[in-house]
Amino acid sequence: MASDPSRGPAARRPDEVPPPPTHVARFAVPPDHPALPGHFPGHPVVPGVVLLDRVAEAARMAFGLGPLRGLPRTKFAAPVLPGQDVRVVLTLLAPGRVGFACEADGRPAAAGDMAFTA
């Protein structure tokens, strides 16, 4: 069936919409990281601020973003332990806005949105 040129360009079907840009990063916080002593003695846990700093750095590098402006939405699902393999999926949601989902050794650990200066 031929298309009718008088109807203008065909609208994209939902299954043809390209996905937003994504990037996958991996890292581990070493057991000798300076933020670990005292957090918590005998049972070290990676502080949330350290985890989010690593995620923000990965997002800045992946998408060429400026400094972090804020965290409109962040949820921690499980602790991250020193030395655990952290996998983060970053999705560019809008200019300066990145969604993230972290897994530690395959388990959900944290997710949310970050806002950056362009």
TrEMBL record:
GO molecular function: lyase activity
UniProt cross-references to InterPro entries, sorted A to Z: ApeI-like, HotDog_dom_sf
Region (Disordered): 1-40
Any Pfam family the entry gives: ApeI-like
Domain ApeI dehydratase-like, chain residue ranges per copy: 23-110
UniProt protein name: Beta-hydroxyacyl-ACP dehydratase
